[in-house]
Amino acid sequence: MKKKLLHFFHFSRKERLGAFTLLTLCIAVFAIPTILQWTRPPRTTDFSAFEATMQAFRQSATASNTAIQFDFDPNTASEEDFKRLGLSEKVAQNICHFREKGGSFRKPEDFKKIWSLQPKDYSRLLPYVHIGMKKDRQTTSADSTDKPALFSFDPNTASEGDFKKLGIPGRTIQSMLHYREKGGIFRKKEDLAKIYTLSKEDYARLEPLIVFQTPYGTEKKTPYISATGNVENTPKERGNGPIDINQANVETWMSLPLIGEKRAQQIVNFREKLGGFRSIDQLAEMYNLPDSVFQRIKPQLVVKAYPTHTLNINTVSAEALDAHPYISKKQADLIIAYRTQHGNFAHTEDILNIKAFTDKAWWDKVSPYLSTE
Fold first, then answer.
1. 278 SS3 class
2. N or C: which end of the chain has fewer CB within 10 A?
3. Which of 49-53, 200-204, 260-264, 333-337 has the lowest mean pLDDT?
4. 194 CB contacts (<8 Å, ≥6 apart)?
């Protein structure tokens, strides 16, 4: 029995050598990966981009959580107001830049035109958008605890102090006084609602208090004595014929009702940046021109000469493109980048090869002001 066991566990010299060789190979197979790992330099992963994204996400989440909801006018709210509403600094700057370029919000739905505004932020803020409201009312607290006084008043003769006692916002008071200084007259109660900065709530509150001391519409107009001694209409009512909006200078614009020197200069500046008007309705796109003023002067405007100034997209700089009212800074950068990568444009329509440019309405407006030579 013992001999059988010894014979069973006995290995010849060749068998022992083969077993040792096999064991050595197994050790080498398992040890080589570990040895190679020790000899390789340590690998590091750059998480900076991921961390920056997460930081931006946390800031956005923090801004949303700490946002204050209050009524605001996107045409007059400051960058700080937009940040308090929970918008990021980038979105707030884009809104302000849009206004600086001559853009304006004519109805609450226009607010979603800001390309970087998230849909959830637009849906959250839409109920608080009030076009034409007083800027100092865009806060969560009132400026004063005093309640407005209620008394009858004539909007044609009431003083600034009377308007303040009635609780009318300061900006609206200035608009009413400026309207009167320009020769405007409130002939019926509904005329007061035409003041674009007067909210519907304030008008509804004031309408029962309006009492006219003079039956306007039947009074005689005071004649205007010209330098030659002839009796004419007032300077704002003299019929000098229609005004060509592409040729009119500051003095010509000032001859129109409700157009002062500052507003006339703004119109001329807007026309120069635009390259000239192709239609009268383009004037309504100018920021700070109330629709009530535009509708008042529109019948006296014509377009006789079309613009000739265009931007050569093969040589123009990003700054010059950005200065155009219809082109944003982002669009200008995209055009320059595409030109740098692909060479000069053969046709202006080649801009539409840029994937970001899909707005046909925008292209129809801006294309007449672009050229390739």
1. coil
2. N
3. 49-53
4. 292
The rounded percent of the chain whose pLDDT value lies above 90 is: 16
* DSSP code for 232: E
CA-based Rg of the chain, rounded to a whole angstrom?
Answer: 36
Q: How confident is the model at residue 339 (pLDDT cuts 50, 70, 90)?
A: very high
pLDDT tier, 337 (very low <50, low <70, confident <90, very high otherwise): very high
More confident residue, 37 or 158: 158
Q: Is the pLDDT of residue 62 over 70?
A: no
Q: Which amino acid is at 1?
A: M
Please report how many Cα atoms fall inside a 13 Å half-sphere around the Cα of residue 201, on the Cβ side. Answer: 7
Is the distance from CB of 297 to CB of 256 less than 8 angstroms? yes
Unique residue bearing structure tokens 């900076």: 48
274, exposed or middle or buried, with CB in 10 Å at 0-12, 13-18, 19+?
Answer: buried
DSSP for 310-364 reads -EETTT--HHHHHHSTT--HHHHHHHHHHHHHH-S-SSGGGGGGSTT---HHHHH
Buried b (16+ CB within 10 A) or exposed e, 258-271: bbeeebbebbeebb
